Amino acid sequence: MSNIQTHDPVAAAKALASQIRAARAEIQSQSQLPDSLAEAMAQAGLFQLYVPAAIGGPETDPITAFKAVEELSKVDGSVGWCSFVASAISMYTAWVPGQLGRTLFGPPLDVRAAGSFRPTADALLVDGGYKIGGRWNYVSGVDHANWLFLNCNIVNESGPVHDDQGELVTRMMIVPRSAGVVEKTWSTMGMRGTGSNDVVIEEEFVPNERTCLLYEPSAHKGIHYNPRSVTMTSWILVAANALGMARGAMDTFVGLATSSGSNTTPVLLRNRTIVQTTVGEAEAIISGGRAYILNSVGKLWEAATQGDTDLGPLVLQGRLAITHAIRESVRAVDMLYYAAGTNAIHQENGLEQFFRDIHTASHHISGLHSNYEYGGQILMGLSPSASGW
């Protein structure tokens, strides 16, 4: 691997556009990234944007990471999603002690992480660590991963372990990708290239030093790894994926509108008032959502950099901006899709893939309508009924 700390990830993402475009048909048919593309992304550091500098990572700020994922997603939503997921999970390398992290993940640094935060399997407490086994689903990018980060329910000889509040204790386990077997369960309307299949592990011993509690203090200090903002730092990349796809849909639509009529008339789409209005409104929606998220997360990052400890109001705005960007991106793509008429349904035009992909991606928890509820609770002086706010 090259020295990714010297790389500009946004420029690297842009440089891959032609390779991604050439691979789109294969991505769809194989339901995973081609090996050559995955290797190029790894070389460019696009799977490990949030790895701490202390173990050789770029520790990319979230605005730059946002722009890199956005560029990938303009060309193909699945490619951007794989960069988002791997980079978000790569943040948890900060919970591994320095020397061990350098030993596990490099040098040179090579972290291509996949995993699941849903504790769908158990970890049995044993001497020196844990024995894990079970199934985890929606493990995006597992086909090109080299490490798995898997959240587990902790159990002992008496059964499930609970904390002082009576909640089940979970713990993240870090294991080599070779420890798991991939079961091909990913058959979906969109985001096919993410290869979000199931992983099954029969039994694997995980030493204590390769485990961590989510939201406990990290081994490496840094703004990224603050439990107060770690969720938002991850989820801004989901918004980047959505906004990138919306921009890709806009570019595709404009190309279509300036070159094609419809089944009923040869008049170019761009010469119709309703199409002109739709494009103007969709542009305002996409640009507005992007401006909100860059402004809110930018303010949070600046405040955190300056040591401000009262981040609550900024986290609130950042979280709302993420959900808003995702849901508004879907709205903009829907408008463009229906404005294209029958043209939209043909695969060769490309618009239908953005439509399918963004509707699939929007089901991520960060895009759920309930996030507005949690924000509203805080704004009216209530405690939010979800974590990370």
Please tag this protein with its features.
9-stranded mixed β-sheet, single chain, 3 domains, 389 residues, 14% strand, Butyryl-CoA Dehydrogenase, subunit A, domain 3, 11 helices, globular
Furnish the topology, listing elements before pairings.
Layout: H1 9-15, H2 17-30, H3 35-43, H4 62-75, H5 77-90, H6 98-105, E1 113-116, E2 122-126, E3 129-139, E4 147-156, E5 159-160, E6 170-176, E7 181-183, E8 197-207, E9 211-212, H7 230-257, H8 273-305, H9 312-339, H10 351-361, H11 370-379
Parallel strand pairs: 1-4, 2-4
Antiparallel strand pairs: 2-3, 3-8, 4-5, 4-6, 6-9, 7-8
Helix pairs in contact: 1-4, 4-5, 4-7, 5-7, 7-8, 7-9, 7-10, 8-9, 9-10, 9-11
Low-confidence stretches: none
Number of domains: 3
* Superfamily (CATH H level) name of the largest domain: Butyryl-CoA Dehydrogenase, subunit A, domain 3
SSE ordering: HHHHHHEEEEEEEEEHHHHH
CATH architecture of the largest domain: Up-down Bundle
Anisotropy-based shape: globular
Per DSSP, what share of the residues sits in E-state strands of 2 or more residues?
Answer: 5-15%
Number of strands: 9
Can you tell me the CATH topology of the largest domain? Butyryl-CoA Dehydrogenase, subunit A, domain 3
Secondary structure class reads alpha+beta
Mean pLDDT across the residues is 93
CATH C-level class of the largest domain is: Mainly Alpha
Alpha plus pi helix count: 11
User: Largest sheet, if any?
Assistant: 9 strands, mixed
Query: What gyration radius follows from the Cα positions, in whole Å?
Result: 21 Å
